[in-house]
Design goal:
Layout (H helix, E strand, L loop, with lengths): L1 H25 L7 H9 L5 H13 L2 H11 L5 H24 L6 H19 L2 H6 L5 H21 L8 H31 L3 H4 L1 H25 L4
Helix pairs in contact: 1-11, 3-9, 4-6, 4-9, 4-11, 5-8, 5-9, 6-8, 6-11
């Protein structure tokens, strides 16, 4: 049994190392680029399906948004609770995505992405019962998820604001992009929930909850640190 536990520990360390390496590399490429960027700037008029595709793709590949949601649902066992929290997050990011782009609300992308990184840290720290143990209080998780959803929406908005988008069909296209984001979120979360459900059938789930959420916190700190470094060293975007 001890040998088995040691092997599990080694596997977890390898997975954590791979996760952090992937996270560090991904931090440089989380944006709309290539043919997608060319399409966004070239379109003139409503393009519902393409913008839905872009929104879904951006969420599915949006490691920062997904890591936060993994933290949110990590200890949620009932489907209705998952729906409640994910809905609050979706309402939050929908508000600021739509308002940010349509009202041309300009914010520093590096600062917003740093806050998004800290949102991952926050949720993982809460999962570890850190607030109650160290600070003696428990924050309102639903309010926190909604507020961080607002910042995640601003992060999505800054990605679109990097391009010159035609005013012709702008409202339709941004709404379509947001719908795509929701579709991508459902697809990604479905996969995560399936994996978590399988893992929860094993006693190692709770035993390794601390290590998993510590890895989430580390990833959040890395993202926030990278973005703050970019804010200090690079021109504002």
């Amino acid at each position: 049994m001890k040998q088995f536990d040691r092997e599990q520990h080694v596997v977890l360390k390898i997975l954590a190392t791979g996760f952090l390496a992937l996270f560090a590399v991904s931090a440089f490429g989380h944006t709309i680029e290539g043919s997608d960027a060319n399409f966004v700037q070239a379109i003139d008029g409503p393009a519902v399906a393409p913008f839905m595709y872009l929104g879904a793709k951006h969420m599915v590949t949006g490691y920062d948004h997904l890591l936060f949601l993994v933290g949110v649902i990590f200890f949620l066992y009932r489907p209705k609770h998952v729906v409640q929290y994910v809905t609050l997050f979706a309402i939050g990011h929908s508000i600021t995505l739509l308002f940010g782009v349509l009202a041309d609300l300009r914010v520093n992308a590096y600062i917003i992405d740093a806050i998004i990184g800290l949102s991952i840290v926050y949720k993982a720290f809460e999962n570890l019962d850190g607030f109650k143990r160290l600070l003696g209080f428990e924050p309102n998780t639903k309010i926190a998820v909604f507020v961080f959803g607002l910042f995640h929406g601003l992060g999505l908005a800054t990605k679109l604001q990097e391009f010159t988008i035609s005013d012709n069909g702008l409202v339709t296209n941004i709404i379509s992009f947001n719908v795509g984001v929701e579709i991508g979120q459902i697809l990604a979360l479905s996969a995560v929930l399936i994996l978590l459900s399988i893992w929860r059938t094993n006693e190692s789930y709770l035993r390794h909850a601390f290590a998993t959420n510590t890895a989430l916190m580390t990833g959040g700190f890395l993202l926030a640190g990278y973005q703050m470094s970019a804010y200090l060293l690079l021109p504002a975007v």
